[in-house]
Amino acid sequence: MKDDSSAIARFGIGQPMRRIEDLRFITGRGRYVDDRTEPGMLQAVFLRSPYAHARIGRIDTTAARAVPGVVAVFTGADLAGAGLGPLPVKPPIKQPDGSGVAIAPRPALANGRVRYVGEPVAMVIAESLAAAEDAAELVEIEYEALPAVALAADALAAGAPLLFDEIPGNLAFRWEVGDAARTRAALAGAAHVTEIELRNNRLIPNSMEPRGCVARYDAERNRFEFAGSIQNPFAFRTQLAEWLGWRNDRLRCYADDVGGGFGAKNQLQPENAMVLFAADKLRRPVKWTNDRAGSFQSDAHARDLLSRVRIGFDAQQKIVALEVDTTANLGAYLSTNGALIPTVPTAAVLGGAYAIPAVYMHVRAAYTNTVPVDAYRGAGRPESIYLLERAIEAAAHELAVSPAELRRRNLIAPEQLPYKTALGRTIDSGAFPLLLDRALERADAAGFPARAAAAKAKGLRRGLGLAYYLEATLGPPSDAARIAFAPDGSATLAVGTQSNGQGHETSFAQLAAAEFGIDPQRITFRQADTDATPEGGGHGGSRSLNLGGTAVVLAARKIVEKGKTIAAHLLEAAAADIEYEPGRYRIAGTDRVVSFDEVVRAAFDPKRLPEGLAPGLDETARYEREGTNYPNGAHVCEIELEPATGIVRIVRYTVVDDFGRVINPLLVKGQVVGGVVQGIGQALYEEGVYDPDSAQLLSGSFMDYCLPRADNLPLIDVQLYEGAPTPTNPLGAKGCGEAGATGAPPAVVHAVLDALREWGIRSLDMPLTPEKIWRAIHGATA
After folding, report:
1. How is the beta sheet containing 120-126 ordered, strand by strand?
2. Cβ neighbours around 437 below 10 Å, total
């Protein structure tokens, strides 16, 4: 074992350590689903519905089955014959009258009826992918087209086509939170009320690695293994086992490297269930990997909300009340988190970082003939902050006060913390006015008028947009970690949470290495495996460091404590007299020490252990959330706009974030930049578009769905504030993964609207495409 003293200084907590895993990725040694091979592995292909709504008549698979290499063709009739029902979903919300959600039963393969373009109708399995694809083209299906509906408001209107006879009016649920009477009374008595209607555009997630999975039967253990490009193996195991009627211990679920998720791999999908079903029936390994066209038609979509917002102010321009009424589009079926996203996590930050005494929110959710909607980076919090910030921005202009000043007057002051919100949540820490001012100073807001004047002289327009976001760390409330040393001093760190590219292999190793005083390179990382830890919450809700990271530290400290007993034996002292600092144990008040590495060696030598102490250093710890914490910060966006074309160019972007204690600032800033880019994508470029009459997907490829590119973006200036660590976990850390996507959309939209103000344009809905901006300018001019 080598001397790690220099590594401690370079790689300790707070150091910008480069990612351990990157060398593996950039040299082609990553292990993704499509890299997996097994002896006798079969390939699966899904035949998808070309209709948004239709009855299924005859299905003839005869020709497909005759293709050389085809092993099986499954349809919905096979699942019905096996006694398998819809995919399990348990929405954790209740309607105002106490009743549950009207659940639209989702089959793994459509049986009798299809309800969106892209719904799986048949599964073809063959010895090769080419044979499966050829055979899928030969499956004959007769459809009887039915009227379809794509927009939530249209689906709830009288006389709309019904997706399910047993769900009247396509209404999945109503949900409310807050005090309606108090909020409306405060609005009625307000000196000023701003009302605005906002649409949160539908997004189609596009991770670098598409969804996919492999299932195989393990004859030696008489169980099945399911490996997938997924975000939560423990939840997948529970849902898959429930669907098949198995005990959990009959199924191992795990994820290797996952090339992006963003929430779209956090729900059980029909293809996952069918791959495991096929592996069970055929007793051979089965692999499926989605293609990009299939991803557009089948990966869970996101957002798609229409909201009416009312915000009231007193004579001193203090907010007195906020009311939100939202119509949510759930798609054709209730996805795993479909009912949750527009309700609980949205309400978690409704009111933001502002002192608002009365808040009420009402939601109606509709089924439509579109791809089911689920979580996407932020999962409710970006939607909430967008409507709040847009309302405050509109109010500032109506009240003839600067947007920054109106926010400053209403932000929760440090002396008000911890602050209990009108919806009963406690915001534990923050320095909101300070971060606002730092962001404006860093962005040189004072110099903006001169830059705007220079741009106007060139025939261009500049706009400056501000937004203050409040996030919340949510998701499953607990996680586990296990650390096991080997005799050579290396260690394996296993966690129940999961990285989809965030850098956990580095940050978690940093945490453990800091406790042990060793080089993080000595730690091998293992994640997201139901065999590796007793539980795991997967990835989502910006929770990984809060929960998984704390579990890592607790497991490390258990090893350190066991090491004290060994050190005391080696030093011939009482364990109570042993002090520890990373890297060594010492008899208190003396210079007699033994290194941590020496203790590790002794732990595997029974002759050097105290009597009755089992050899080895292998500990597991579990941590449960002690309270929600609230990442927050200010975004300032400066844009330049060309009136003749409507083209927007972001010329400057500044973020000041409060994530509490930062473990690795390099990784954190990378997460913020990625989130900001996705937020810019929603604000300016991305939109999942359906034909309102036929419910055909019109943005089904990158020809029609625009993602932001590197040349659309400036360098993003990210500053971190660590002066307000959260007391809700031992690390003092707040989640960072979704913050950028939460603050960016309103900041970008406010900047564009600022540039358009001379034309009297007060509001536009995302995405603010060149065409939309050009039409608004020329419509105002006309």
Report:
1. 70-75, 120-126, 42-48, 286-289, 212-218, 223-228, 251-254
2. 16
The sign of the torsion formed by the CA atoms of 691, 695, 697, 699 equals positive
Whether the full predicted model's pTM is greater than 0.70, yes or no, is yes
Residues 6+ apart with CB under 8 A from 229: 32, 33, 209, 210, 211, 212, 213, 255, 258, 259, 261, 265
What is the distance, to the nearest Å, from the Cα of residue 332 to the centroid of all Cα atoms in its chain? 21
Contact 470, 503 (CB under 8 A): no
β partners of residue 359: 322
The DSSP symbol for 53 reads S
DSSP class of residue 625 equals: -
Residue of 29, 321, 331, 15 whose CA lies nearest to 185: 321
Q: Which residues pair with 523 in a beta bridge?
A: 491
User: Mean pLDDT of successive 10-residue segments in the chain (782 residues)?
Assistant: 51 87 93 94 98 97 98 98 96 95 97 98 98 98 98 98 98 98 98 98 96 97 97 96 97 94 94 98 98 96 98 98 98 97 97 98 98 96 98 98 98 97 97 98 98 98 98 91 96 92 92 95 94 88 89 96 96 95 95 96 96 94 93 98 98 98 96 97 98 97 96 96 95 95 98 97 97 93 66
Tokens (6 digits) for 194: 């701003």
Q: Is 346 helix (H, G, I), strand (E, B) or coil?
A: helix
Q: DSSP string covering 635-678, please?
A: EEEEEEEETTTTEEEEEEEEEEEE-BS-S-HHHHHHHHHHHHHH
Is residue 538 within 8 Å of 528, Cβ to Cβ?
yes
Nearest to 194 by CA among 469, 393, 411: 393
- 577 CB contacts (<8 Å, ≥6 apart)? 568, 587, 588
- Give the model's pLDDT for residue 782: 62
Residue 575 and residue 590: Cα distance in Å, rounded? 14
| CA angle 707–713–718, rounded 5-degree value | 115
β-pairing, 223-228 with 251-254?
parallel
Expressed in angstroms, the distance from the first to the final Cα of the chain is 77
- Report how far residue 183's alpha carbon sits from residue 309's, in angstroms, rounded to the nearest whole number: 12
Give which of 691, 689, 695, 690 is closest to 54, Cα–Cα. Answer: 695
Q: How far is CA 303 from CA 321, 347, 383, 474, 721, in A?
A: 25, 15, 7, 18, 30
Residue 338: CB partners within 8 Å, gap ≥ 6? 89, 91, 330, 331, 372, 373, 374
Cα 758 to chain centroid distance, Å, stands at 38
- Only one residue has tokens 């760390």, namely 473
Q: At residue 608, what are phi and psi to the nearest 5 degrees?
A: -105, 10
Structure tokens at 468: 């203050």
What DSSP string runs through 461-493? EEEEEEEEEE----SSSEEEEEEEE-TTS-EEE
Q: Is 98 helix (H, G, I), strand (E, B) or coil?
A: coil
Residue 1's pLDDT is: 52
Q: Cα 700 to chain center, whole Å? A: 22
Task: Please give, one letter per residue, the 3-state secondary structure of 597-618.
Answer: HHHHHHHCCHHHCCCCCCCCCE
